[in-house]
């Protein structure tokens, strides 16, 4: 990880705090859990700076670096654009609708070129990562993979990105990924298999787990959506709407709102109510919230539901629901709700957004917008509420039209069974390590 590209800065502006026992400790840049002997718990960040003070000199997501767990910044990162959506609000019957747009739309100065808010988390996770961390391992259903692969390639950070083979179509870029990026695709698999393989690889010497929702860098990066909204509105919104898979973005928004309230002396307003959305055919969080049944604790009664989902990015089989500081806590604290929407409603919402606001949006954002429409119709959201709708991805279709993109071939395609076999995992690790060395030798022989 070349130091001249990622200049080292001080990481002493925050501490890690356990949501279960309250233990406070310094961050080594890779910690994912509290070492104390208690049940599962998320860590949170506690910053030494009291007030919310964006840095006008910093670019992209690092505008909020004083409230990010980073020890370095990466150039050329983007951030969320928050704007009022009066035409869409009028169609919905809302007096005050704000959209947090995460994607590509030059007219709005929206510059997340992978078309997803996952770039926010990638920039912060990489900014937190120490140089001695070794090779980062990331599991993804598609969007996270594209974000990490793009930034790691651009800044020469060693990473293994594990995805279901069906997600490879999302991993296109203007220039091929560099030798630091190795793509491992799991054939005939779903997101859960990618997670299993990534966890097994990360447990081996020389690899470091990115950690998903457990990574404070990921959550605080996603939490900048709420910081950007607060900066634009001058207060917290009444309602926050987002489609979820793991729910990391929703937890992050809630944590950011808590931080803003604590440091503003109550001037920020009440905590936003979380209104979350999932695919109608795959909705484990919805089931848990409304019935108390945890689908992930029993046998899978609908094994094909993942493949029928309109937004496959939202198909996380084991969301961080009951963990201390997790989704259930955030929903209870915010008096939240979880809804579901089907493909027809989501497609209609996507078309309406493009017609009224301009940019194309991704299926998860369509699910979220459809859920907001249903919530207003059912009286779950009041028409006079100030609503922040997180458009978690958009502008991807336009970006593909305006730029010539190249597909990135996987380093390795492995059978689904290999993700769950220790000997196969060791062989995969050896192959990806060898492939990086070979790729760097080739790059060095070609020269600049």
What can you see in these coordinates?
Residues 76-393 form the Tryptophan synthase beta chain-like PALP domain. The protein has a domain at 81-112 and 218-400: 3-Layer(aba) Sandwich (Rossmann fold), CATH 3.40.50. It has 14 helices and 17 strands. It has helices at 86-92, 118-128, 143-155, 191-202, 216-222, 224-233, 248-263, 284-291, 305-308, 327-334, 343-357, 363-377, 396-402, 422-446, and strands at residues 14-18, 24-25, 43-47, 81-84, 96-105, 110-111, 135-139, 159-164, 172-173, 181-186, 207-209, 239-243, 273-279, 337-341, 386-394, 406-407, 412-414. Strand 7, helix 3 and strand 8 form a beta-alpha-beta unit. Helix 6 (224-233) packs across helix 7 (248-263). The longest helix has 25 residues, at 422-446. The protein is globular.
Q: In whole angstroms, how far apart are the ends?
A: 18 Å
Q: In the CATH scheme, what's the topology name of the domain at 81-112 and 218-400?
A: Rossmann fold
Structural class: alpha/beta
Strand content: 15-25%
Regarding CATH, which class of the domain at 81-112 and 218-400?
A: Alpha Beta
> What's the architecture of the domain at 81-112 and 218-400 in CATH terms?
3-Layer(aba) Sandwich
Shape annotation: globular
Low-pLDDT residue intervals, each spanning 5 or more residues: 1-7
What is the tally of beta strands? 17
Radius of gyration: 21 Å
Helix-residue proportion: 25-40%
Domain Tryptophan synthase beta chain-like PALP: 76-393
Protein name: Cysteate synthase
InterPro entries: Cysteate_synthase, TrpB-like_PALP, TrpB-like_PALP_sf
GO molecular function: transferase activity, transferring alkyl or aryl (other than methyl) groups
